[in-house]
Amino acid sequence: FVMISLCICVSSISLKTPIVKTVYGPVQGQRELSRYGRYYQSFTGIPFAKPPVGPLRFAAPEEPDSWTLPLQATNVTPVCIQRDYLVTYNPPTEGTEDCLYLNVYTPEVEYRHNKFENKLLPVLVFIHWGGYFAGNSGKEYLGPDYLMDKDIIVVTFNYRLGVFGFLTTLDDEAPGNYGFKDQVLALKWVQRNIEYFGGDKNKVTIAGQSAGAASVHFHLLSSESEGLFHQAISQSGNVLGPWAFFNETYQKQITSYQALFTNCGNETTETKQIIECLRGLPAEEILKTQDYFKRFFSDPLVVYTSTVEKKSVRNPNPFLIQPPGEYLKKGMFRKVPWITGVVKDEGILKVSNLLRNDNIRNALNNKFVEEISNTLLALTVSTTDSTTLYSNISNFYFGGQNKIDINNPNSIQGLIDVYSDRSFIYPLYQSLLLHLYHKHNPIYLYSFEYKGEYTYGDVFSFTTNDISFSWGTSHCDDLLYLFYTPKYFNKLEADRDICMSKYIVEMWTNFVIYGNPNLLDDETQKTSWKPLDTAINKDNIQGLIHLLNITGNIKDGIDIKGSKSFYKDRINFWKSVDILEN
């Protein structure tokens, strides 16, 4: 079967306008050029599910209908309906509910390196970022140009977002997690079809950044993802982030408010009536109500996210059946090779718009304690004594001050650090403790600290205003070196940025191909990236930690080296405070 599939692939993609069969029908793509002039075949906008409209709104996805004539897989992939609060305060509605499409990119056979010329290629499936309410998989966000210089196949896909992807009534009427179930169906599509494109279904690496990274981590836990992948990469996100999972009490409140805002009921209305009403409304009308959830400008950013489901006759395939922390404590996860890490200044995701917009900054300082405690850091999720916790945070990060001074670099960096630690770094540390306690190996940890010409800090700022502060390495900046992103940036031009991109692409694709990021084909960089040691004390991994520090800047050069320190002082602070997660 493998050889038959491979022959189909070879004969198909050698054409100028390639036609490849799938189990649902043929698709016709187009030829494109990689960064270094290598031809690859691009197939965009392939449906992997029926349009999730009508009775399929707030329901598990279903396989698409078949077709006979070649599907023109050359169009821009539709965006899942959304309002992107990450990049502007009052975002327009964009996209459509009919958005469950995927993209496949594969190097042409004659341009592959000799050892892969007649072999099925390893597959990288990348899950897009966007806080579960924004983003998409199209080439304008996740352009494959850099990765297509390597002998791998790349797959990206959309999944339902926001209220359409994650609304739950906590019962059979709308059990939730539809966005994750979309992801599962996309991964099943890969298993059934990727050999037709020359891909190895037994060598699939799932990867993602931010919400995509947490999604990858969730797939390590969920029984629904069993057998659909073999390795994983999580960049800046995991299941213990306070934005990645909400408890039942919070979910009930959100659903009640959603019903109220759309005139579909309140907290006493039967869930069946609420969902019937919501299914009857135009999608744009539902999406307009998302402004009502904002308590501080665009916060809380994440309103809809993962939830625990109950298995039943009507919901036979729940994605999560217990909180993610319980999976980790019990060792109920797949111990596949895993790369995971953070960027140095994850908090720029929020701080750039808080401080570079005068109105937002002044509003923050006017109610600093309240907004920092309850909204930006969501401390009430983790403690019943947020006043004491905030006092400790203020002393550690802000020097005891209750405002941010844009003329004080330490004040600004303190705000960046506390958001980074609360949302990304400490949750990752806690996750790693549990994975290593249950002997998960290998896990490769990294910290990305390189500062190049471009930064997502500018994208997240909402404004072109500037302050006299040298921004560090923002959330999403690592993506600049994996994917071409014409939506926001030109192609990399600075020599050191291009060099950094070559290093990152090399390490990531080596992991996809070999399961080890250290095996470098071109010998350009001798890394010493050791996996984490599973022989740890359950409460502390700092003494035995091994990670890769990816540092430097466009002016002074690049430094990639092993390290044994992972934000030690800041992690020790969070270990010392009284929060439920500890």
TrEMBL record:
Keywords: Disulfide bond, Glycoprotein, Hydrolase, Serine esterase
EC number, as in UniProt: 3.1.1.-
Domain Carboxylesterase type B, chain residue ranges per copy: 17-534
One Pfam family here: COesterase
Broad class of enzyme this protein falls into: hydrolase
Protein name per its UniProtKB record: Carboxylic ester hydrolase
Family the entry assigns: Belongs to the type-B carboxylesterase/lipase family.
KW Protein transport (keyword) present: no
Protein biosynthesis is among the record's keywords: no
Superkingdom field: Eukaryota
Lineage: Eukaryota, Metazoa, Ecdysozoa, Arthropoda, Hexapoda
SUPFAM superfamilies associated with the record: alpha/beta-Hydrolases
MF terms in GO: carboxylic ester hydrolase activity
Residue intervals passing through the bilayer: none
InterPro entries in UniProt: AB_hydrolase_fold (IPR029058), CarbesteraseB (IPR002018), Carboxylesterase_B_AS (IPR019826), Carboxylesterase_B_CS (IPR019819), Type-B_Carboxylest/Lipase (IPR050309)
